[in-house]
């Protein structure tokens, strides 16, 4: 708890109107999309400059006060939760796009820039920032980097890490590091930039980023396919990937679709329901690209891999088809889903899915399980929905019992127990599923090096 003197000191560092202690602000900024923790922040701080961030970190180190970074708070693993009286540092007022280099195709911006804002800025300048996800309208660049966000375009463009060419960070000692300076080539030893990407704020705060941009894609088309068996999805993926320039390859279950349809904002794509659906997006780079896509549809239908399909005829229809996939998370949020965000090597997906399906059917007979994910890069999202009558703590304990079986399978396949949501509070007990004891020991050593007093987002990741 902050003493009056400490509160006054913070007010002098920032200005009193950028230090919030009211209940509504503490609750809103002390919690991300995770719903398994009760927020308990001491105050929420809103710096505007790098110098203010440095001053806050040095004050916190001196006072031994823990800090929790806050971006768009769209995380799903508790990485931005303040539950032990920490100070929340919000970057929403550090939201300037600072510099565009059209020749080098890079942009430098502050950590609080909204993802969609950056995407629109790039397009307005004839360029493209391809990292995209359903939360692009609220997620922030700093948070995306701190969690190495992936999303719906990974099959073509990769994770956030691929697009970060420079970082400015403030370490747990209040030291400012300029990492890589936006260089395309810099072969001078350890690249600390990559330590901060995916570090979840445990080493320090990302305050600025220099990001690589690309050319805008050609006109995009979207197909939604009805698939009777989950195992056939990878056959469809292989067929389309060999012939088309895919920018996305997503899947979702009928259960997921029903929750989206229940909101009344989109229409069912087909007259008859299927157990699973694929959404794929591709560039129309040649006059006959759509003809090729339809020929592939006929081929897959002949193999019995799909039973129906639709191809967008306009950009508006393409956006409406995307909503079938992108609206899933929001539509199931009221059910307080317990999420498993797992990944294996793409070639191993069919065998992994077959065994995982057996586990889920056996261990979750009383719960509704919603499947969706970026299956084109081996990433599956398993969402277990909480029954209304079941207390949330009891529900979480039941899900954690099943985790043992799910994560044993992930370990057997040398997979990741957190493909893109991060580790945070929810998953740090399972880190050894995907990391060896030697790796974890070294991760803790790195944490101690950059944050010797343990004030940076404590309890998360390691």
UniProtKB/TrEMBL annotation:
Domain FAD-binding PCMH-type: 37-216
GO BP annotation list: respiratory electron transport chain
The entry's keywords: FAD, Flavoprotein, Oxidoreductase
GO molecular function, one term: oxidoreductase activity
Domain of life, per lineage: Bacteria
Xref: SUPFAM superfamilies: FAD-binding/transporter-associated domain-like (SSF56176), FAD-linked oxidases, C-terminal domain (SSF55103)
Pfam family, one: FAD_binding_4
Assigned protein family: Belongs to the FAD-binding oxidoreductase/transferase type 4 family.
Protein name: FAD-binding oxidoreductase
Organism per entry: Vogesella indigofera
């Amino acid at each position: 708890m902050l003493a009056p003197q400490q509160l006054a000191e913070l007010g002098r560092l920032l200005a009193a109107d950028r230090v919030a202690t009211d209940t509504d602000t503490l609750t809103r900024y002390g919690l991300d999309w995770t719903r398994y923790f009760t927020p308990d922040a001491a105050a929420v701080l809103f710096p505007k400059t790098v110098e203010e961030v440095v001053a806050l970190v040095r004050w916190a180190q001196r006072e031994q006060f823990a800090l929790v970074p806050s971006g768009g708070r769209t995380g799903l693993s508790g990485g931005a939760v303040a539950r032990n009286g920490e100070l929340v540092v919000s970057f929403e007022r550090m939201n300037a796009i600072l510099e565009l280099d059209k020749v080098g195709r890079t942009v430098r911006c502050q950590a609080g820039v909204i993802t969609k804002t950056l995407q629109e800025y790039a397009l307005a300048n004839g360029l493209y920032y391809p990292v995209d996800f359903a939360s692009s309208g609220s997620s922030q660049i700093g948070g995306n980097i701190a969690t190495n966000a992936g999303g719906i375009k990974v099959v073509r463009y990769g994770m956030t890490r691929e697009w970060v060419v420079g970082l400015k960070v403030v370490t747990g000692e209040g030291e400012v590091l300029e990492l890589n300076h936006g260089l395309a080539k810099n072969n001078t030893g350890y690249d600390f930039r990559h330590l901060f990407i995916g570090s979840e704020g445990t080493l320090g705060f990302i305050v600025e980023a220099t990001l690589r941009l690309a050319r805008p894609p050609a006109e995009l088309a979207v197909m939604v396919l009805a698939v009777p068996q989950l195992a056939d999805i990878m056959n469809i993926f292989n067929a389309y990937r060999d012939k088309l320039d895919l920018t996305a390859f997503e899947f979702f279950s009928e259960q997921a679709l029903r929750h989206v349809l229940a909101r009344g904002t989109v229409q069912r794509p087909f007259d008859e329901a299927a157990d699973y659906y694929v959404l794929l997006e591709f560039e129309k780079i040649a006059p006959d690209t759509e003809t090729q896509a339809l020929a592939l549809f006929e081929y897959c239908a002949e193999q019995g891999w799909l039973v129906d399909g639709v191809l967008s005829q306009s950009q508006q229809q393409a956006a409406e088809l995307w909503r079938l996939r992108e609206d899933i998370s929001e539509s199931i949020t009221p059910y307080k889903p317990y999420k498993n965000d797992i990944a294996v090597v793409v070639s191993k997906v069919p065998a992994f899915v077959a065994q995982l399906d057996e586990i889920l059917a056996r261990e979750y007979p009383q719960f509704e399980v919603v499947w969706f994910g970026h299956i084109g890069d081996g990433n599956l999202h398993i969402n277990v929905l909480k029954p209304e009558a079941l207390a949330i703590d009891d529900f979480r304990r039941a899900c954690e019992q099943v985790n043992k079986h799910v994560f044993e399978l992930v370990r057997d396949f040398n997979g990741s127990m957190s493909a893109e949501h991060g580790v945070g509070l929810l998953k740090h007990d399972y880190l050894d599923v995907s990391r060896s004891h030697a790796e974890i020991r070294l991760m803790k050593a790195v944490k101690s090096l950059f944050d010797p007093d343990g004030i940076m987002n404590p309890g998360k990741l390691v």
